[in-house]
Design a protein that fits this description.
Elements: E1 32-36, H1 42-54, H2 62-65, H3 76-85, E2 91-94, E3 108-112, H4 116-127, H5 132-144, H6 160-169
Parallel strand pairs: 1-2, 1-3
């Protein structure tokens, strides 16, 4: 069985995600993986796929149908159980870079890109609106996450120019610059 697991170039682990959670995933023929960087149209693409698969019929909400597998906020066994219980064509969200995402020949991959300036502005609008209450909640969540790697969730700087320099000039992982 271990010979069937793809070899990944990188392991991505931080306060938010853990690429090793993909080791628990059992692909089915026809599964769809929607792979985007953060703030690059993920929700939009998930909804397009949901509408195409269900053809306007009543369907569970997108969040129930299309889990974010590497996100640390739900126990992996629980998430995999819900995914395995699905009897329709499954679609899964990922924000992993492609060198940290396993490739399975029987799975279809949708990769979405977006102009980095648009990604940045979307991220700024999202991140800079976090309230102190929300930041406390996410910080306590990530501090309590078993096996958390790296720093806790950082607040956005007050200045958009500082945020731009930090975002464009440094990464979360040692090999990023």
């Amino acid at each position: 069985m271990s010979d069937l697991l793809p070899t990944l170039t990188r392991t991505y682990q931080n306060h938010l995600l853990d690429s090793t959670r993909w080791n628990c995933y059992q692909p089915r023929s026809g599964d769809i993986v929607i792979a985007t960087s953060l703030k690059s149209g993920t929700t939009w693409m998930q909804e397009i796929v949901r509408q195409l698969l269900f053809q306007g019929q009543d369907a569970p909400p997108r969040r129930e149908l299309s889990p974010w597998l590497e996100a640390r906020w739900s126990p992996i066994d629980e998430l995999i159980g819900k995914l395995e219980a699905q009897d329709h064509q499954r679609f899964i969200k990922s924000h992993l870079p492609l060198d940290g995402l396993p490739f399975f020949p029987q799975v279809q991959y949708i990769v979405v890109g977006r102009d980095p300036r648009d990604v940045f502005m979307s991220l700024w609008n999202h991140h800079s609106s976090y309230t102190p209450v929300f930041l406390e909640k996410i910080t306590s969540y990530v501090n309590d996450t078993p096996g958390r790697v790296g720093q806790t969730f950082p607040p956005a700087p007050d200045d958009i120019h500082t945020f731009w320099r930090e975002w464009i000039g440094q990464g979360w992982f040692p090999w990023e610059s």
